[in-house]
Specification:
seven-stranded mixed β-sheet, Rossmann fold, 10 helices, two-stranded antiparallel ribbon, disordered N terminus, 11 strands, single chain
């Protein structure tokens, strides 16, 4: 689908051709963004012509989407917690279910009678850390990631959205000084098992494998975070981690084995236990 300079096409015709290659709903979504119009205008005026540059952009996007590239990477952004975050293939695409982790974190820090210190481990695009910093501006928020490319994107998002976040490069707690203490540590780490068939489907095929896969059972990185967290938590500090739909019981067991108290899990809107955590104790 190579466009020629100066070529134009009606919106309806471009959409019909694209819908032969990708699902029509996806073709329509990409069309409104390529054309810079709203869904209502597309529905009301399908006869409008798509300018040559927009047509070229649209046909490029459709070809790449047909090849399996995620829509978020094509558009360069994904909405999370009511804000638009830049994304690229260096970072995991933020998921709606991860908003539960932000909700749980906000409930923790709002219950404190003081300004809190928060660390987001494996920040990726910075969606969690930036959301927390904007929702709780008096909190001091740090974010770490082993990937320099991911941190570049996270910093861009923080700057674009006006969030004050301190970024550090390193794997999990290795990014912080040994004496660092936090009131809350949050993480959405890799938790997909090696060989999971879902890795061959959908957007997962194109997302960074290091942000998805964690050992034979998907729990190796969560266990590492849980093991190391007590040394970086203040008294009564809490740890919250996102995990897979069938991992809650194992994560709770790991938390208890590491000495955490008040261990529990939270369910997402689908009723799935998606976040687990506990307190270091006094």
């Amino acid at each position: 689908m190579n466009a020629c300079t100066g070529r134009r096409a009606a919106l309806a015709g471009a959409l019909d051709r694209a819908a032969r290659l990708v699902p029509r709903a996806e073709a329509k979504l990409l069309l409104v963004h390529a054309a810079g119009i709203g869904h209502a205008r597309l529905a009301a005026h399908p006869e409008l012509e798509l300018a040559s540059d927009a047509l070229e952009r649209y046909e490029d996007w459709i070809a790449r989407r047909a090849g399996g590239e995620p829509i978020a990477y094509l558009l360069g952004w994904r909405e999370f917690y009511g804000r638009r975050f830049r994304v690229a293939d260096a970072v995991l695409i933020p998921r709606p279910e991860t908003e539960l982790l932000v909700d749980c974190a906000l409930a923790v820090v709002r219950a404190l009678a003081r300004s809190s210190r928060i660390a987001d481990l494996g920040t990726g695009s910075g969606a969690i850390a930036v959301s927390l910093a904007l929702e709780q501006p008096e909190a001091q928020v740090w974010a770490s990631d082993a990937s320099g490319a991911a941190l570049d994107i996270a910093r861009e998002n923080a700057q674009a959205l006006g969030a004050r976040v301190r970024f550090r490069q390193g794997a999990w707690f290795a990014a912080f000084d040994p004496g660092s203490r936090f009131d809350l540590v949050v993480s959405n780490p890799p938790y997909v098992a090696e060989g999971d068939p879902h890795l061959a489907n959908g957007d997962l095929r194109r997302e960074p494998r290091a942000a998805l896969v964690a050992g034979p059972d998907g729990l190796s990185e969560i266990r590492r975070i849980v093991r190391d967290a007590p040394a970086f938590l203040a008294r009564s500090g809490q740890l919250l981690v996102e995990h897979g739909y069938d991992q809650a019981e194992q994560v709770r067991e790991a938390l208890r084995a590491a000495g955490f108290e008040a261990v529990r899990s939270w369910r997402d809107l689908a009723g799935i236990e998606r976040v687990s955590g506990g307190s270091r104790g006094v």
